[in-house]
Amino acid sequence: MNGVDRNLFVKSINIDGKTIASTSDMASYDKGPVDGKFVVAGQEGLDRGGALTFGVPEEYFGGAYVPPPPPPPSKAVDIVVNAYGTSAGGQAAHFKLLVDGQVIGDAKAAATTTGYKFTADIDPTKAHTVQVWYDNDASVNGVDRNLFVKSVSINGHNVAVTDSIVTYDKGAVDGKDVVKGQEGLYWGGALNIKAGTDLFSDTPATQTPVPTAPTKSAFYVAADGKDSWSGKLAAPNADGTDGPFASLEKAQAAMRANSTIDTTYVREGTYHLTKTLELTSLDNGHSFQNYPGEKPVLSGGEVVKSFTSEGNGLYSAKLGTASSLDLIVGDVRQHLAEKFAYDAADVTSGWHFADAASGGPSGWSIRSHGTDVTAADIQPGTLIQIMDAERLGDTLGTIASFNASTRTIMLKNGASLPFAEGTTYKLLNNAAYVDQAGEFAWRASDGKLLYKAASSGFASSGVEVPRLDTLIKLNGASNVTIDGLTFKNTTTGGDALLLTKSSGNHISDNSFLNVGTAIKLTAASSNNDIAHNTLNHLAESGIEMDGRSNGNSIYGNSISNIGEVRKAVSGIIGTGVDNNLISNNDIDHSARYGISFKDYGGTTNTVNHNNIIQFNHISHTGLETADGGAIEILGRSSVDTGMVIQGNWIEHANGLATSNQDTWLYGQKGFGIYLDDMAGGITVKDNFIKDADWASVQIHGGDNNVVTNNFSVIASNKEDFIRIEWQPVHGTAGDPHNNTITKNVVMGTLPLDDYIELLSANDFVIDNNLVYNVPKYGDHDVIGKPMFNNAYWGDYSLLPTSPAFAMGIHDLAWAKMGADGVAAVGLEHFWDGV
Hints:
Elements (H helix, E strand, L loop, with lengths): L11 E4 L2 E4 L5 E4 L8 E3 L9 E4 L20 E12 L7 E6 L2 E7 L5 E9 L5 E7 L3 E3 L2 E12 L2 E4 L5 E4 L8 E3 L8 E7 L23 E3 L26 H10 L5 E4 L2 E4 L4 E3 L7 E4 L5 E4 L1 E4 L3 E4 L2 E5 L9 E2 L2 E2 L1 E2 L15 E3 L10 E3 L15 E5 L6 E10 L4 E4 L11 E6 L10 E5 L4 E5 L5 H4 L1 E4 L5 E4 L5 E3 L2 E3 L6 E6 L5 E3 L2 E5 L1 E6 L6 E3 L2 E5 L4 E4 L6 E3 L2 E5 L7 E6 L5 E3 L2 E5 L2 E6 L13 E3 L2 E5 L6 E7 L9 E3 L2 E5 L2 E3 L5 E3 L3 E7 L6 E3 L2 E5 L2 E6 L5 E3 L2 E4 L5 E6 L13 E4 L2 E4 L7 E4 L4 E4 L2 E3 L9 E2 L4 E3 L4 E4 L23 H4 L9
């Protein structure tokens, strides 16, 4: 007014003696009309009018938070009704099974005794009433329709109908004509079983039965075998003249030579391979399987035992060939020695900050600080690992030169990303750095491996130095089965099991431990089944596909601890592949992605079409990198891909970067589902996403994406449900268009500023979403509690009274999520193992 602004300045608020600044992460400023459409971080000056909002957790209001009671114990119990019936008038006897008055299912009784199985979720700590209710008793033309119940099995406990806990309520089931239990329900009515808690407890443990020995003709490989024997016996005979083979190669040759035998069983033991077993078209239809009940191990490691103590916990052993990045002791990956102290519990430890090159950011050099690096650090075999400030990935290689006066470290081989201010690095593999238990390095001066042990006990069993890149390679093979084997101790940079030009193969129930990448499919390796494998402690990625490896089914796998050496990794990754199904995998603790599909655009021919990512359980991703997602799709060709991301459970999608001020940035650019660099034509539906650092779903320059019926739980003002932004480095192709975000459920764990972040988002639809503890954005958004069953205890299924149903939002397929949901999804029809 008259050139004078009327303004309000809010410094802070105070709740019960606790001060919260207006610039706190809890504060947000909704400018102007307070409609949730122009919300920024909290600030002191409210120079545009509007409202300063503080989302304050319970502890600020005094008293301990009282959580809701835990859900009652629940157990899926099988109830089998063994019954038969007589028909009348063309109608069979019909009955319902009820537990505590709730109908579990129904059936029509066949003319011969049949077991009718029902499954009920019950509290096993309480007694329950089980009823078999015969509800269509009749006589037609002098013929009686009747139901006869022989017995009822409850959780494996058989209950005879004449048991003392069984009664028969005749006729109207009104409790007025109740007699002892009997088989014939001649008057209709219900058998009532008063089932005590003893019937719902687990059945007594029984000894694991001895696995059945194979009966089909087969070859055998055993640690005590000989390649001069026939290989047709599972164990050496009594006089030691015949028995199993000693090597996989001999069994391979034998199957090639004998058209009547197509299976080799591998007996318990560890087989140290010195060369890759390569299977070709000559091996089509052949199988390598574990002997039933046994766990054979294939190792690519050289066993080293001849250690000499050098004092202070240091031990050395002469090697014929230099060690590299890997050392395994007692099935545990050891730590390549680094100059600076590290703590396995802190991923930032050991990294030191560097300056950009004197001429500006370069992929060829960095400058160390002060005297962090000296000429003594540059020894034969010394390596350097560098991560750019955004920590998109790591560069690992050798040092070409070091200039102490300018502090410049030159790399022998450059990196694709320039190293700006805030870059971090480690110096590795110098024997002088071996000063913490578990560290090792190659000492070039005397050709020895140097290792600092926690105790001397390791020496008797020795260590393993991984030497082999690949244990088994399928090259142009089809219909090969690899089942029940354990793959261990291959090199970083290698693929423990490699399929090239190989299709229609079955890889199931194998374990991979301390390998580089566990499984790789390349050069059009298509229509393979990769199922029920366990992958753990991976130097790089879990399962990788490229080169138009299409139509593969990857399901029911457990993939953990991904990227223990390299950091640009993923639990499952595809580049230039189509029509693959990625379903029901459990993926956790990844340095970067959980699942990723990469299209690098240009002339790379890496567009990914029509892949389905469904019902996976993904947690704790982005632990050492930023700008990533639990599920990430890169789409630089800017085409609609037809991909579907549905039914996944995602939580703890993190991000970690560094600043040009040499500080660590936690919670940086972590996304639940990340449609990156023009990824388009993707349907994102029916997913549950919680605790994603920046956004549950990020659309970065892509077009024609649909985001619907997802459930998102957000917990801070920097976290949004949906984020749409342009990707300016790609010009107009990086402008997002026609993205639709409707019918989602978004819940803030406390009052938050908004659920959207729009940065040059162009034309889009965000509407008809159910939101709680955040302002509505769309005109038809509904504010209301989603009515989750018990969110505090992790049950986010909807109660029947949820307002979501009236909006056309349906509940999620919770029982189908994760590896345990394979059967519910019906995937085993692809291949049911061996």
